[in-house]
Design a protein that fits this description.
single chain; alpha/beta; 10 strands
């Protein structure tokens, strides 16, 4: 089995599950161009904890962790199996890397996981587990988590960080259809340049170095899964490929990144 890439996916609004926009076809194309994984490990912006936790249930529920959306959204299910044995291995690998971890026996799949997975693997027949992120510990910690799990890619495990390249929900009503927030493209371009240059130190310091960082991310949690995916590249050469999936609602950049590491 050849080594899988690691991925960073911008999952957008929960409505992406009903309105795929550009990201739905891009994810389907991405899956079609990769070998089928035996399991998936996802770090989602919607599971936050003080220390790494790993979901260990054999039958994860579909969590509808949002409110105020159409009833049809709450009827959607993503009944993928869990991976309890892999969860134990993931927890052990994190422990071995000095990252205190535990297993949550009940955690299901939040919308940061199941919404993009509906387009990547719509049959919901690949085992999935999640790992939590720690927003108070910053980018380097998330990178270390990904690096601790990187060799799983050689065993047919797909490692995914799920967030959003820009994510400022204060802009919800500020940009009507056809209008774009002025900070989005400069931030997209900066991230793409730094990833292409393998400039990990600049990316760790994005709050100080990136243009419009506080507008693009008032809080860190939707960018932190990017660092998990970067670490999971398993090499100082990230091998980053950007996949443009548009800008949703004028302020949610839907970029996808594929990391192949050193080839």
């Amino acid at each position: 089995m050849s080594r899988l890439p690691s991925l960073y996916i911008s999952h957008g609004s929960p409505m992406t599950a009903l309105e795929p926009g550009l990201v739905g076809p891009r994810l389907a194309e991405l899956a079609a161009g990769m070998q089928r994984p035996r399991a998936i490990v996802m770090a989602s912006a919607h599971w936050l904890a003080r220390a790494p936790q790993v979901s260990g249930t054999a039958m994860p529920e579909t969590i509808h962790d949002f409110g105020g959306f159409p009833d049809a959204l709450y009827q959607l299910q993503y009944p993928a199996p869990g991976a309890p044995e892999l969860a134990q291995e993931v927890a052990e690998r994190l422990q071995s890397a000095g990252l205190t971890s535990s297993i949550d026996p009940n955690r299901g799949l939040d919308h940061g996981a199941w919404v993009p997975l509906r387009y990547l693997y719509p049959q919901a027949d690949i085992p999935v587990l999640q790992v939590s992120i720690q927003p108070m510990l910053g980018p380097a910690h998330q990178f270390a988590m990904g690096r601790a799990l990187a060799s799983l890619r050689e065993q047919g495990v797909l490692l995914i960080g799920s967030g959003s390249i820009t994510h400022n929900l204060h802009e919800w009503r500020n940009y009507p259809q056809g209008k774009e927030a002025p900070y989005v493209r400069p931030f997209i371009e900066w991230v793409e340049q730094k990833l292409g240059d393998n400039d990990v130190s600049a990316l760790f310091d994005y709050r100080q170095q990136a243009p419009f960082a506080t507008q693009a991310h008032p809080t860190d949690e939707h960018l932190l899964p990017l660092y998990f995916a970067m670490g999971a590249a398993g090499s100082d050469v990230l091998g980053a490929t950007r996949i443009d999936a548009g800008i949703d609602m004028g302020f949610l950049a839907m970029d996808i990144y594929r990391f192949d590491g050193a080839r």
